[in-house]
Predict the 3D structure of the following.
Amino acid sequence: MSSQNPVFIPGPTNIPEALRRACDIPTMDHRSAAFPPLFERAKSGVKRVLKMDEGEVILFPASGTGGWEAAVTNTLSPGDKVLAARHGMFSMKWIDLCQRHGLIVEVVTCPWGEGAPVERFAEILAADTAHEIKAVLVTHNETATGVVSDVAGVRRALDAAGHPALLMVDGVSSIGSMDFRMTEWGVDLAVTGSQKGFMLPVGLAIVGVSPKALAAMEGARLSRCFFDFRDMLKLGTPYTPAVGLMNGLGAACDMLLAEGLDNVFARHHRIAEGVRKAVAGWGLRPCAVAPALYSNSVTAIVLPEGIDGNALCRHAADAYGVAFGAGLGEVAGKVFRIGHLGMLTDVLALSGIAAAEMAMADMGAPVTLGSGVAAAQDYYRTNKAAPVKAAA
């Protein structure tokens, strides 16, 4: 596959040249006086992207999955009960992680294509008068299905029930691309990674931790060593940190804040809408069952009967050197995914739409060449990008 072509997978995302250069620094002694300013720049930038007024940002050399494990093991104890919905591959993986750690998971099973069931959560939380549930898990953006869930709605359900459970949010494919309000939404643990909205290589697990979660850490009894918040907070970096990635993270936050977070989110919405217009132009539909659930970072597209989505992705890679996301879990073979987050523009999105059209036509899908491209072009022409703001 040619490295000249952008990828259209929902992460890792395309890396801006400026961020590639920011990660490419000489070896630094992370015990020297040169490291703390670099470290603090990255953490303070993440706080602003998370819209986080208080608490701590903790950076582990890991992926987002390591962030999940850190969130769980630092705040819960064996036998604790957590509430979660299973509605996609990544919500399912988080449930599996909790069960492997000996937690009792009350699982609400939903069709793939739907979001977290806020009303059902509200009923369960209201009925839990003994407050046996210690945490509620929400996958903000389910990457397998292109579905966004209502985190603020889950917080309202917790508050309406007067329930003290921690609110843990997987924001791996949303933070940095879609609006996220950690303090306003009362999120206690927000998990993301370096390789998606922050447009960096894989290698950093990023966890926002509220004061409430920091207090829960003191009584938590699940085993942890590498992922122990206490060591990270006491020593900053108790083991060798990913210095180049941290420097890149500081630069990535600067880049997002210079564009202006509202402009970043509007750009992602506009590009996503163009992709969705293309999907409609092809006569197809997203996996997400309603417009309110549409993700602005990835669209999972339901293919006609007889067209295998995973074979389509392989063909696009072999014939055109373009990467799309294959279907996962229950939707494997039924969908393919166009990731539209991170370093992306209208023009780059159009190239992905055109490549998807060619690949689908090659596979025998009833798609007219140019139909999706024209629909997206019409949308992009009439919905211009906002000017880039100066850094705050």
